[in-house]
Amino acid sequence: MTQAPATPALTWRPLHPDLVPQWHRLTEVLVEADHGTEHLAPDDLVDELAPDWIDLERDTVVALDADGVARAFGVTQVRPGDVTLLRAQLWGGVDPEWRGRGIGRDLLARQEHRAAEIVAGRRAELGPETAAAAWLVVDEGVEATERLATRAGFEPARHSWVMRRDLSTPLPDAALPATEAGLRLLPWSEELDDAIRLAHNEAFTDHWGFQPWTEETWHQWESGHRDFRGDWSFAVLDGDEVAAYALSAGYVNDWEAQGFTEGWTGKLGVRREWRGRGLAKTLLAASMRAFREAGMEYAGLDVDSANPTGAVALYTGLGYEVRHLMVQYLKPL
Q1: Cα-based torsion angle of the residue sequence 140, 84, 217, 52 in order, rounded to the nearest 10 degrees
Q2: Residue 163 CA: distances (Å) to CA of 107, 216, 249, 322
Q3: Taking a C-beta distance cutoff of 8 angstroms, is the pair 202, 307 a contact?
Q4: pLDDT one-digit tens code per residue, 289-300
Q5: How far apart are CA 66 and CA 61, in angstroms?
Q6: How far apart are CA 43 and CA 51, in angstroms?
Q7: Fold: same for 11-153 and 162-324
Q8: Rg for the chain (alpha carbons), in Å?
């Protein structure tokens, strides 16, 4: 971060792979304290620091107490694929034992400052009128963080639902609709992967806050991620074109903490020309069957509660239930 918060009894320094064990302990403390759902593994945190577009010296910070225990951290990111909207993701937190001392307020202000610097640099490339905003994702009900965001000028802009579906109950039919005889349901393959990425970028062009995935970010956080499951992922092809797709993962690190195993659908989309034909339902059903065959207890996904394609109705109609709520807070830059 450009300048670390001045906090007695804490030493502030940039994050580095050598500090991952301390950082990981802190992220687990925060998930438990704030009733989150994502338990990142140490390898996941190493991945967060790996992209060459992240400047560890300026974009990251961690606070260590006198015993070397991490008590706060902040990461500020603007992905290289952001073109029409620069999304400065502000990720961080303060150990509950150290809250109430102004650390969070000061840390957030520093992150905003760094976000403004990154945005200024990108606007120099893309144009001065390029839209930009700082983003905070807050687990609903964490009142201290909600107050912090509000006092800093952030406003709640969108709600997301984390949903799950019990796989012990009867599953929907995974066959393509009889009216779609020209389409084929295929398992994911490396040969299809980039076409799926491009199909995803097209399918989500009109979705709120979406920016295209580059080959690099797609490979790092989607099809190249260690938890990605190609055997649980599918695409619908019309000739050689990807009409729809569902990509899944198995986040093993979450299972013990949440108390159940789960196949996670991370990307589901239907290109505009093929919407309204039941393809999303077919893909979800195929994924559910793959999950159950692998011994998973639940199918999981998350969704923008205001998704314009009717996804919420689809999921609830297939038996998914809301188990967690998150709020995205935004502040224009």
Answers
A1: -100
A2: 31, 28, 15, 4
A3: no
A4: 999 999 999 999
A5: 16
A6: 14
A7: yes
A8: 21
Both tokens assigned to 305 = 């509660």
Average pLDDT score, the chain: 93
Closest CA to 103 of 137, 49, 61: 61
User: How far is it, in rounded angstroms, from Cα 281 to Cα 185?
Assistant: 12
- The whole-angstrom separation of Cα 216 and Cα 194 is 11
294 close to 232: Cβ distance less than 8 angstroms = yes
User: Is-contact 94 145, C-beta < 8 A?
Assistant: no
Average pLDDT (97-111) is: 94
Torsion angle of C-alpha atoms 73, 23, 37, 324, degrees rounded to 10:
-10
162-324 fold: Aminopeptidase (3.40.630)
pLDDT for 304: 87
CA distance 94 to 71: 6
Terminal Cα-to-Cα distance of the chain (whole angstroms): 17
Q: Which CATH superfamily is domain 11-153 in?
A: Gcn5-related N-acetyltransferase (GNAT) (3.40.630.30)
| Reported pTM | 0.90
Cβ-count burial of 196 within 10 angstroms (0-12 exposed, 13-18 middle, 19+ buried)?
buried
* 23 within 8 A of 40, measured Cβ to Cβ: no
Cα 300 to Cα 221: distance, rounded to the nearest angstrom: 17
Length of the chain as a residue count: 333
Q: Domain coordinates of the chain in residue numbers? A: 11-153, 162-324
- β-sheet with 183-187: strand ranges across: 11-13, 60-64, 70-77, 85-94, 131-139, 321-332, 155-166, 298-304, 262-270, 241-249, 228-238, 183-187
Residues 316, 163: Cα–Cα separation, whole Å: 9
| Cβ-contact 298, 164 below 8 angstroms | yes
Give the per-residue pLDDT at 307: 67
